[in-house]
Amino acid sequence: MAASAQTPAPPPALEYQVKASYLYNFVHFVSWPADVFGDDDKFNLCVVGADRFGNALDIFTGERVDNHEIIVRRLQQPAQAHDARCHLLFVAADAADPTAIASERGMLTVGEVAGFLEQGGIINLIEVRGRIRFQVNQQSAQQVGLIVSSRLLNLSTPPP
Amino acid sequence: MINVSRFFRQMSLGRKVVVIKLTVSTISLLLIGIGLLLHERAEFERQTTRKLTLLADVVGLNSTAALAFDDPAAADETLAVLASDEHVLAAALYEQHGNLFAHYRRGDITAPLPETMPAIGNPTFTDHEAAVLRPIRLKGKLIGHVYLGADTDEWQETLWAFGGSIAVLFLAVAAVSVFASIWLQRQVADPISHLAELMRRVGQEHDYTLRSYQRNDGEIGVLVDGFNNMLEEIGQNRTELERTRDELRQFNADLEQRVAERTAQLETANKELESFSYSVSHDLRAPLRAIDGFSRILLDEHSATLNADGRDSLERVRRGAQRMGLLIDDLLKLARVTRAEPTREPVDLSALAQDIVQTLQAQDPQRQVRFVLAPNLKVQGDPRLLRIALENLLGNAWKFTGTRPEAQVELGVQSNTPTVYFVRDNGAGFDMNYAGKLFTPFQRLHAAHEFPGTGIGLATVQRVMRKHGGRIWAEGTVDRGATFYFTLN
Which residues of B touch A131 (CB under 8 A)? Predict the structure, then answer.
């Protein structure tokens, strides 16, 4: 962290620029129950694991999603997600245990490793013929009170 | 334009009605058609815009995820739904930087869609195409555009249907016009034509017993009745006029005959009267000569045996006889003038007057009268008659200036064309109230003892002037003199 504060972060790889924008766009196609927002009304976009986004995520800080201001939070481990009241949790591939994520009400979990959906994850980013695509586990989403737009479902790659 | 208006004027009433009706109907239909067409076009554009906008927005909304997650294939699928609308020619999605992202083309369209977003108005209508370009937003953020182009075949269909309706309407109006004109022809034009023909016949044949026997109500009926009444009236007037004219002609002929008869009678009576007065005058002379002669002998040779009373009586007899002689002379002169047919030869009035003046002065050398005679008054006439006239006029002037110390008598020309001569004196004059009696025989305005005379002179003068085709009139004031004007033909 100290190093990154002193020297400008290198531009993120194209892959993570795309993934950052995907994370931001998922927010528009998923509905959260109203009661999961705290008194501050912030939308907490959390990242756990090695951060390869550079500043590609930070540019969304301050943007509003249905009047909820986005705050990007970087967590050391997934267990912190509950306290951080994450509404979206991205689990990087190199997180401690990228598939072992506890389901949290009102938390959209996004992963990037195979088997993420089977462990209760909701969206998993995959690569299909050189393009980033995604899979959705609608059942998991429903269990934590999230509604995924049919438009997003239409676009998703069918789960294995 | 002049030809057209003349052509129009020569048309029959029925045709005029058809032409007017068709023209008005055509213009009305055209105006209504244009108005409706403009309205239709506006409505079509409004509807098309609404439909295309709706369609584009739906497509755009359904493409937000594909755009957001960079999935052109999914977008192509979304656009392919447009095939269900046969009028959509092509559609395209452009991502936020304006590059072509996905597209759809109707089966028969081969032209490629532009790789970058076209800058077109929203909506855009060209000859055969309507197009809209709508923005695509995701939670308020612009993420791309959707272009949608459609054909305007519906408009062509509308146009054809519209043209057909107008044509049918026009035919209907034309048919109605023709029927109306036929009806009008029967109701109006035919009766009027009939009337015109009747008028022509009346004008040519002067037959005022002709009548129009047409049954019709309304204005035409009034016209026909009026025409019949007019003919009746004219016929009556004409008959009356002809009768009056005949009567007048007969009356005139009668009158002329009567005038001729009366004139002949008058002429005979006049001639008889003239010869009567002539012979009476002439025959009166012989006994008068006896009275005059023997009374003079009695006075010359036997005055010694008569006393003063006897001589006085005898003197009176003699004066009466002399006066009667003068009267007979004047009467004979008047009769001669009346009977004479005047000759026409050059006469010098000035010389004639000079001669008469010398005679007058010789008869009474005591009197001092100034004569002013205009020179060279040359006329055409009878010298004998003119001498009688001038003797009378100058003699009168001489006589009535008798009491004037500075008497003056003038002969001259008052004015020309026609030439008016005058004889003026400054003598006793006369009262203009009696001017009319001056030329009547035996009418005298002065007492005989004042100015002697027979009262025949001016009547004689008037006859002379009339014989010459002229006339005479007089002006005068009592004690201020008299002027006699006369003209000769």
Answer: 70
